[in-house]
Design goal:
Layout lengths: L3 H11 L7 H21 L5 H7 L9 E2 L6 E2 L1 H12 L16 H15 L3 H22 L9 H17 L4 H14 L5 H4 L4 H21 L15 H5 L6 H5 L23 H14 L6 E8 L1 H7 L7 H4 L3 H11 L9 H4 L2 H7 L2 E5 L1 H6 L6 E7 L4 E6 L12 H12 L5 H13 L19
Parallel strand pairs: 3-4
Antiparallel strand pairs: 1-2, 3-5, 5-6
Length: 455
């Protein structure tokens, strides 16, 4: 069997030199813009604000920009805080088939190291593409069994960040391979911290970005690891997934397509496992024209993760509400969408939302479960008080590669989310830099830096 780690390292290294098509470059710019859209709203919320305070005296020296506080410091400090912020409001990108959010850790690491080292925009783009290539393909090999106990964005995200770091530093295939191998020992993040309350989930990609930079810098400076770290019987895949990881699927099409061109852009501010139900409900309501007051009950049948992670009939916090199908269904019906405002404290307590939630139930459907993770579907049954029953099968999610957000829709998402933080002039300038500029994005922050910007 081909050593998958070597094959992935070679694929990443190839992005250091091969020509970039317009499609790949534009997909990369879209991913960076989407990263800022989801990162900036998280910059004013815990846990990134708490981390910023905690590391105020130890952010280190360097030119990496921390968007949480507007200060510069070490790449690891900036990437830790930025990636944490990026995962807070649940709008970050998804590689659907791998159940993985690559952007939060990979782009955070790439930007921080590139800013610190003065790398070019093209070099940074190549590093992000390579980081997505490796991370997304590893996620293909280990899913869906990995997700039973592990948070892919935290585990595999460490490897994506390591590859991006190594590539910004100009590493060759051998050094990239050692960065992957090193980072496989740093990967962690278990499912229980996705199930309950608390702030650990948002820290998962923060840690992944930080640990990935550690692995990338170490490899660039000659530190080595076992190049059998991914696929052997004591390696990462065996330890964290079913015994026979699907490396053939993971490596299929290398050189023909690259994962960054097949990303899901999130269209709702909640767990992606709720999306098919929300999209299906939108279509039903547009067609039938009923109001929330006319609803007697809504039952959603989903795949395994929908029922296991999102069956939360009484969420008590914004974090729990983002993973509550009952809450998100009710919020969409009464607010017109599941956006940032849906998770403000006064909205979480609204009696009308709480009452409507009681009419929403969810269960697992074996047929839908067997198609996961490649297909994310839902079946809905809406019963109205006048006796009508409306059934609907939702085969896709808006934002997935099969039903993508247009450039205009992505820009509207960025303007809405980042516009809640940045003044209009900064908002436009950052958007133009990311989509059309020839330099790395500079410093923008919801919090003005203090006069003392020394490390």
């Amino acid at each position: 069997m081909t050593n998958p780690l070597i094959a992935l390292a070679n694929a990443a290294a190839a992005w250091q030199r091969q020509s970039l098509t317009e499609d790949v470059t534009w997909a990369t710019r879209r991913s960076i813009l989407d990263w800022f859209a989801t990162t900036l709203p998280g910059c004013v919320l815990p846990p990134s604000t708490l981390l910023s305070d905690a590391f105020a005296d130890s952010r280190g020296q360097g030119n990496a920009i921390c968007y949480v506080n507007g200060l510069t410091g070490s790449p690891r400090n900036a990437a830790l805080l930025n990636a944490t912020a990026s995962h807070t409001v649940e709008f970050d990108d998804i590689f659907k088939d791998g159940g993985y959010h690559p952007g939060s850790p990979t782009i955070a690491a790439a930007l921080a190291v590139a800013q610190d080292r003065g790398a070019s925009l093209e070099q940074t783009h190549r590093a992000i593409i390579g980081g997505y290539e490796v991370g997304c393909r590893i996620s293909l090999a280990i899913q869906p069994s990995h997700y039973r106990y592990w948070h892919t964005t935290s585990t595999v995200g460490t490897m994506g960040a390591a590859v991006a770091t190594a590539m910004v530093l100009g590493c060759d295939a051998d050094q990239i391979a050692h960065a992957i191998a090193l980072s496989s020992s740093f990967a962690g993040g278990h499912q229980q911290n996705l199930q309950g309350d608390g702030m650990a989930k948002a820290l998962h990609p923060g840690h992944a970005a930080d640990a990935g930079i550690l692995a990338g810098i170490a490899a660039a400076n000659g530190i080595t690891a076992s190049l059998d770290s991914l696929h052997t019987d004591k390696g990462f895949a065996a330890a964290t997934s079913a015994s026979c990881a699907d490396w053939a699927t993971a490596l299929e099409g290398i050189g023909d397509w690259t994962p960054i061109t097949r990303m899901t852009v999130k269209n709702h501010g909640c767990c992606g496992h709720i999306f098919p139900a929300l999209d299906g409900l939108n279509l039903i309501q547009e067609k039938e024209g009923f109001t929330p007051d006319e609803i007697n009950s809504i039952h959603v049948q989903g795949y395994s993760a929908t029922e296991q992670m999102c069956n939360r009939p009484n969420p008590q916090s914004a974090q729990e509400a983002r993973f509550s199908l009952q809450y998100c269904i009710a919020a969409q019906l009464l607010l017109g969408g599941v956006r940032l405002a849906a998770f403000e404290s006064e909205v979480l307590a609204r009696p009308d939302i709480r009452a409507l939630m009681q009419r929403v139930t969810v269960s697992e459907d074996a047929e839908l479960a067997s198609a996961y993770p490649k297909k994310r579907m839902a079946k809905l049954l809406v019963q109205l008080k006048d006796g009508r029953q409306i059934s609907h099968f939702q085969a896709t999610r808006k934002g997935d590669p099969e039903d993508p957000l247009s450039d205009q829709e992505l820009i509207a998402k960025y303007d809405e989310l980042a516009g809640s933080i940045l003044p209009h002039q900064q908002l436009q300038a950052l958007r133009h830099t990311v989509l059309y500029g020839n330099e790395l994005p500079g410093s923008v922050s919801p919090i003005a830096p203090s006069p003392d910007t020394s490390a």
